Amino acid sequence: MEDVKTDGVAMRDIEKHFGNVIALAGVSFDVRPGECHCLLGDNGAGKSTFIKTMSGVYKPSSGRMFVDGKEVIFNSPREAMAAGIATVYQDLAMIPLMSVTRNFFMGREPTKGWGPFKRFDAAKAAVVTIEEMRKMGINLRGPDQAVGTLSGGERQTVAISRAVYFGAKILILDEPTSALGVRQTSNVLATIDRVRKHGVGVVFITHNVRHALAVGDRFTVLNRGKTLGTAERGKISPEELQDMMAGGQELAELEGSLGGTV
Amino acid sequence: MSTGETAARDERIKEESFIARLMRRPELGAIAGVVLVTVFFLFTADSTMFTLAGFMNFMTPAAQLGILAIGAALLMIGGEFDLSVGSMVAFAGLFFGACVVTFGTPLVVAIPATLVFAAIVGSINGQIVLRTGLPSFIVTLAFLFILRGLSLVGLKWATGGSTQLRGVRDAVESDPLTQFFSGDAFEGLFRVFANWGLIDTFQNGVPKVQGIPVEILWFIALAIVATYVLLRTPVGNWIFASGGDANAASNSGVPVRRVKLSLFMLTAMCAAFVAILTVLDSGSTDARRGFQKEFEAIIAAVIGGCLLTGGYGSAIGAFFGAIIFGMVLIGLTYTDIDQDWYLVFLGGMLLVAVLFNNMIRRRVTGERD
After folding, report:
1. pLDDT at A182
2. Residue of A nearest to B2 (CA)
3. Distance in angstroms (rounded) separating the CA atoms of residues A53 and A31
């Protein structure tokens, strides 16, 4: 197997076994800066295992991983984060009772002063948060507005812009649109588009073909721990993608009776 | 960005009125409570309650409770409870009394030793909670009884059968540190004020209030430090985050276990500090000291805006919550009202505070959850 010399993240022949269960059976995947690479798959396809391997939660049983052309082995999510790979999980790591500002800087508070007088730089945190949120199209009432008052889509956007602000070069989004309404979803998709234009590589996990086609540059379908191939934008139809995800046959039959609405 | 957008944003900030901003502060309820109680006693109590002497009278018990309540409030914001603080007051008092009377150590050793001892007991509480994942309510309830029992047994052992240990005052009389932990402060200043006729004096020219009881100063200092830490340091943000959602906090890099463990230790140290102040003041230590103080401390914290579920509250709220307690406890003696109404008030106040807090929380989160 050759080394991969491109920018971004490349995963080659990743396998992951849990005891005698083979969760991933040789998956290759890469994401380059400024592109949105959609990872599709039905429940149980191995999407979660795969992104947890990518973000350093699991160590692959075999296979190699490269970041910007250098081979890496992550022992913890912290190491992956240090390499610029950030993951926004479905629970978002947000605390509804706390303000947007305090959530934005949670665990990474800016300080001023030194020694015992080192203090939380609330003014700087407020300015940065308001500014970063405005870049994403959210006008906060004020820096102390609680996250609980934001909609699901807005919270998703806060989580994304937080990751980008703290230096994410590759952003893994774990089903960011799965629990959202139509308008909220289009807000999140717009956010993904914005982030991508800033040169961040996005791995967009979803099982909704329409959401994927709306922003994706490339599409990889995962089924039973294997990739069924990667397609580029414009070279695959929604129906083909849908079929690949469901493993072909059954859905095609179902779709006949549902009139192509799935 | 265009100026149009900036202007639009500013408008939205102004939309939120001063009242609306105030409503989001956790300590609002406690401040409103202080105002209400003050008005109540202005009408019902003897006017001497609101003289300088009366003020010191109700601030002293408020301070002793308040030091406990501020510790309890920080721990509650961090998402945990400590029901053992009342027993901890007795237990730490025993340790402190034994240091001073039985072993004759000077205060410069006895005070830090007592605080460290309390911190160790607090960390045992915390370790059990964090390692087993049991609710802190149950673990510290066990310690409520364990520590109270140990205090009784220990005191009998130290005194040869009594549950009181006397002779503290004789032991510390000449200690240079005593003045910082017992009696009044600024006595010279108060004599000067009396000479100028600024404060009331007895007929022989001695001021009626000889100074500020030191526990009040410690209480105010602790409230300021705790509020500063909560609102203006990274650690404060970690405390809110740990209580708000421990999992989310730790995924974001907050050292949740360390934060919670430190808070358990701090709460126990607050109890030990109250023990030191009261033992020095009364000159003795007693196994029944601090009885039911854990509940009063938690009630004061709840009146101060702390949610039982953690992640929200304030130290300055607990400060005012404790003052409400002191005012009612002492204020009733200035009225014709039966003292025992105090207990009725206690329960009523708790109920109102919890309902009020729930309303505030819904407002903060915009009822979207």
Report:
1. 85
2. A134
3. 15
Rg from Cα positions in chain A: 20
- Say if CB A71 and CB A65 are below 8 A apart: yes
**Residues B97, B90: contact at Cβ < 8 Å?**
no
Residue A87, min C-alpha distance to chain B (Å): 10
For residue B246, how far is the Cα from the chain centroid? 24
Domain that holds residue B314: 27-365
CATH number for B102: 1.10.3470
CB within 8 Å: B253 and A107: yes
> Under an 8 A CB cutoff, do B9 and A134 touch?
yes
Per-residue pLDDT tens over the stretch B159-213 = 888 888 888 888 888 888 888 998 888 888 888 888 887 788 888 778 888 889 9
Enter the DSSP assignment of B99: I
Note whether A141 contacts B5, CB cutoff 8 Å.
Answer: no
Q: Do B252 and A108 touch (CB under 8 A)?
A: yes
Q: What is the pLDDT of residues A159-198, one digit of tens each?
A: 988 988 998 899 999 888 887 888 888 888 998 999 999 8
Sorted by where each starts, the structural domains of chain A and their CATH numbers stand as 9-95+169-258 (3.40.50.300)
Q: Is residue B7 in some structural domain?
A: no
Query: Can you tell me the distance from the alpha carbon of B347 to that of B343, in angstroms, rounded to the nearest whole number?
Result: 6
pTM, full prediction: 0.86
User: In chain B, whose CA is at the least distance from the CA of A97?
Assistant: B365
pLDDT grade for B128, boundaries at 50, 70 and 90 = very high
A85-88/A62-67 β-pairing: unpaired
Q: What angle do CA B73, A92, B133 make, to 5 degrees?
A: 50
Q: Which helix (H) or strand (E) holds B141?
A: helix B136-159
Within-domain flag for B13: no
Cβ–Cβ under 8 Å, residues B308 and B361 = no
Q: Are B265 and B65 within 8 A, CB to CB?
A: no
B245–A144 C-beta distance less than 8 A: no
Q: Pairing mode, if any, of strands A36-40 and A218-223?
A: parallel
Euclidean distance between CA atoms B201 and B208, whole angstroms: 5
CA-to-CA distance for B9 and B14, rounded, in angstroms?
9
Dihedral sign for Cα A194, A200, A201, A203, please: negative
Helices B293-303 and B28-44: crossing angle, nearest 10°? 110
The C-alpha of B225 sits at a distance from chain A's nearest C-alpha, in angstroms, of 12
Confidence at residue A255, expressed as pLDDT on a 0 to 100 scale? 59
- Provide ipTM, 2 decimals: 0.81
User: The dihedral of CA A94, A40, A222, A6: what is its sign?
Assistant: negative
User: Is residue B4 in a domain?
Assistant: no
Q: Let me know if residue B149 belongs to a domain.
A: yes
pLDDT of residue B5: 41
Q: What is B309-328 written as a DSSP string? A: TSS---HHHHHHHHHHHHHH
CA A139 – CA A137 distance, rounded (Å): 6
| Edge-to-edge order in the sheet of strand A70-71 | A21-31, A9-18, A62-67, A70-71
Distance CA(B170)–CA(A178), nearest Å, equals 72
- For residue B240, what is the nearest residue in chain A, using CA coordinates? A98
How many domains in chain B? 1
Q: Give the one of A96, A107, A122 whose C-beta lies nearest to B365's C-beta.
A: A96
Q: Using 50 as the pLDDT threshold, list the residues of chain A that sit under it.
A: none
